[in-house]
Amino acid sequence: MDKIIEIKHLKKSFGDNEILKDIDFSVNKGEVVCIIGASGSGKSTLLRCINLLEKPSGGEIIYKGESILDNKHNVYKYRTKLGMVFQQFNLFNNHNVLSNCVVGQTKVLKRSKAEAEEVAMKYLNVVGMSGYIQAKPRQISGGQKQRVAIARALSMEPDVLLFDEPTSALDPEMVGEVLAVMKTLAESGSTMLVVTHEMQFAREVADRVVFMDGGVIEEEGTPDEIFNNPKKERTKEFLKRVTRQV
Amino acid sequence: MFWEQTWKIITTYWPMFLRGAGMTLFISIIGTVVGSLIGLIIGVIRTIPKPDRGFSKTFLKFINWLLTIYVEFFRGTPMIVQASVIYYGFPLAFGIDMNRTFAALFIVSINTGAYIAEIVRGGIISVDKGQFEAAHAIGMNHVKTMLYVVLPQVVRNILPAVGNEFVVNIKDTSVLNVIGVTELFFQSKSVTGVNFRYFETYLVTSIIYLIMTITVTRILRRFERKLDGPDSFNVIPGNQMQVQRPEDAVKRKHRH
Question: What is the DSSP letter of B49?
């Protein structure tokens, strides 16, 4: 299969605190990978290392056969190939909905304003937010913000979409609308890497599930393998905790 | 008697007051605008993330060191002393002779720049870290992140502080009478030199200063509200009608 991102022996420490210990991992084209695990297991750090928001302390990240930790590699250009969706949405507060999706295209990809707006409208339609193009981020709900953030990432037409706990900051009633959009994207063949606490989503949508614990990948496999027949003790424990009925 | 005197001063010397007030406004407007630009540029330079490689790291450190000296020097010494050093001192020490008005603009600008640099730095630090990350994540470098995402928010947030600086400038240009700039205080002094009516003359002067500062404050407040934009927005139902099925849109993208 076509490997888009390949990670070899990735390490990340904050001071003496080792968050990621020797991660080997890859994402193939068209694949939806969900990363699950307890808080503090290093899931988000792994995602943030992949688009270099955190600088890895060691190891290699290979994007389409090129090592991007090489000093000569253009970080900014690489980042345009990865669309990032944050837990806290992080919409640009000084731009309205449309312009949030346009500014990256015109200023980074150097598209014309007309073309950028057309592309932005296309993806705002995908996430069902095209009616709100004049709204400022402070004027819309959390779920709507996150859908705009997804449209903003899509507007850059990246090779991979990275989601960092996209529903964790949302009210329960708004989780559904965001997951629905993500599901649509997954079904249409987008390559996605999703850090999530939504087990049901991982079970239904993922092609592959990665369970992280204590800075290492403890187990990975199909949703069926992970959720129905986990092999490692840590995985079983974690799943028992998160699926506990109240 | 008192009102008669005051009225007489106004009617006799109004051209002098007017020219003085004009000069004061001119210097403080230019000084605040140029100072703000200096402050913004310094703020951006001082928040460049530390590179971890050799030369650029040393170079940036050196620049930051120079900027710190600049800020500390101009914030830490009185403007009246700076004016004397530059206008009277420079011609003697370095043979740099300058026009009075230019010297005034120069002093007020770099002085304001030093204050606003700190205000801008505070403004940049107070912008949510997520805004920087989101900008970096779509491929913006430091300058683009600043220009299109961070600074517009900083400018809005520091506007009250800059307005304050503007008001301070209107009042503090009065110290420039020490180098003979014909601003409002200098003109008032000239008037009292002729009529010896200190109370009435300086009362008129105070009122003119007050009118200028209050007007400026009001204008800036209005400008702030304008920047904030309307509180409401229109949902555009037309577009909702043409919604294509999400699946189709994404599929079309993947076809080519």
Answer: P
Dihedral class, residue A110 (left if φ above 0, else alpha if ψ from -120 to 50, else beta): left
Name every residue whose Cβ is closer than 8 Å to that of residue A204 and which is 6 or more positions away in sequence. A183, A223
Residues of A in Cβ contact (< 8 Å) with B234: 134
Other beta carbons within 10 angstroms of residue A36's beta carbon come to: 26
CA angle B213, B214, B215 (to 5 degrees): 90
Q: Give the model confidence (pLDDT) of B145-194 as tens digits.
A: 999 999 999 998 998 999 999 999 999 999 998 888 888 898 888 888 88
Distance from CA of B174 to the nearest CA of A (A): 38
Q: How many CB pairs under 8 A join A and B?
A: 123
B133 phi, psi to nearest 5 deg: -65, -40
**Contact partners, residue B24, CB within 8 Å, separation at least 6:** B170, B173, B174, B183, B184, B185, B212
A136 Cβ under 8 Å from any chain B Cβ: yes
Q: For A64, left (φ over 0), alpha (ψ -120 to 50), or beta?
A: left
Count other Cβ atoms within 10 Å, centred on residue A199: 18
**What number is the ipTM of this complex?**
0.91
Residues 6+ apart with CB under 8 A from B92: none
Q: Are strands A192-195 and A160-164 parallel, antiparallel or unpaired?
A: parallel
Question: Model confidence over B59-117: pLDDT tens digits?
Answer: 888 999 999 999 999 999 999 999 999 899 988 888 888 888 999 999 999 999 999 99
**Which H, E and C letters describe A14-76, residue by residue?**
ECCEEEEEEEEEEEECCCEEEEEECCCCCHHHHHHHHCCCCCCCEEEEEECCEECCCCCCCHH
C-beta of residue B176 within 8 angstroms of C-beta of residue B27: yes
Across the strands, what pairs with A33?
Answer: A193, A208
Give me the DSSP letters along B91-159: HHHH-----HHHHHHHHHHHHHHHHHHHHHHHHHHHS-HHHHHHHHHTT--HHHIIIIIIHHHHHHHHH
What is the DSSP-derived secondary structure letter of residue A192? Answer: E
pTM given for the model: 0.82
**Cβ contact A128:A147 at 8 Å:** yes
To the nearest 10°, report the CA torsion of B63, B67, B70, B73: -110
Does A132 reach chain B within 8 Å, measured CB to CB? yes
